[in-house]
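Dissemination and training. As part of the outreach component of the grant, students in the summer workshop were shown how a complex can be specified as a set of sequence lines and then modelled as a single object. The example used during the hands-on session is reproduced here so that future cohorts can follow it. Participants entered these lines:
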Amino acid sequence: MARRYEPKPIDVNLTPMIDVTFLLIIFFMIVSQITQSETDPIHVPRPTNSQARELKYANKLIITLVHDGEGGVARYKVGSRLARDMEVVRTIAEESRRSAEALGERLDVIVRADRDVRYSYVRPVLEAIAKAGLENVNLAAEATSRAPAETEEGA
Amino acid sequence: MSDGTRKRPSAEQARTAGFEEPPARRRSAHVEPRRLVQPNMTPMIDVVFNLLIFFLCTGNFNQPEGMLPSRLPKHHGVATGDELPATPIRIVLRQYGTADEDYMIRIEQRSEQPSDFAGLAEMLRGLRESTAFNAESQVIVVADGNVRWDHLVNAFNAALVARFKNITFGTK
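and obtained this result:
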C-alpha cells in the first residue's frame, strides 16, 4: 500500500520581501527627487509675512542667479543652459517665448536669485526678459506654511 | 509466575508488617532547563534601518519655495518715467552701509516713514484704504544697485500684503 505524504505547511519568511520592497520604494523616491530637482540650490529671499505660494506652471522658464559669495553672481542659468551675458539670456528667453507661442501656450518666467545678490545684477535680467517680450515674471521666495489668503483675510 | 521484578508493597501491606507508610513518591524529579528565547534581531534591524532611510528621504528639511507673481512693463523690464500714471507709490530702498541691516526704506512724498518691512506693509495698507489710492494703483519699488535682492523682494511682498495688484520694479 502506497504511503500518503501529508503536505507540509510552507513557512514563508516575509522579512526579506519587506526589506526589498522598502528598498525599491526608497530607490524610486530618490530617483524621482533627482528628476524634480532641476533647480540649483540657492537661498531665495525670505520676506516678512511671505505671500509666496506654490504655483503650477504649464510652461515655465527658470532663470537662476547663483551667488558668488560677495554680492555678485557666479553664474546665470537660463533653463538648463548657462548664460555668459544678458544677450544670451534675452536670446534664450525669446526662443522659449516663440516655442510657447507656437504651441499656443503661456510662458511664465521664474526668477530665482540668491537673497544676497545685489540688485544691479538682477535688474539687467529683468530688462532682458522684458526685451524678449515676456511679461509674466514670478519671483522665487520662501513660502510660509500659512496660505496668504488666510493671513490677510481678517485685515 | 515471577517476572524477576520486585513488586512494591502496598500501603496496607506495609502497615500490617509494621512499617510506616512510605513517603509519597515524587512525581517527577526531572526538571527541564528553561530554554532561553533569543529572537533573531537581524531582520528587525534591517526593517528599522529601512524605515529610518525612508523617513529621512521623505522628510523635507528645506523651507518651501513659493512664487510672487508680477508683470513687467512691456519692452523695458523696469518702469520708465514716460509710462508712469499720475500717482504711483514709489518705495525707495537704499543701502548706506556694508552690513545687511544697513538699509533704509522710504515712501516718496510721505512725511511718515516705515522702519521695517512690516511697517511698510502697514503704511501701504493705509494708503490703499485712503481716497487717493486703490488696489489698482501702481506701486514701484526703486532701489540702488547695491541693495540686496532680499530687500527688494521684501518690499514687493509688503505691497502684496497691502493688497496692491500693480507692483513693479523701477529705476531712479
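The first helix of chain B runs from residue 11 to 16. Students were then asked to discuss how this feature might be tested experimentally.
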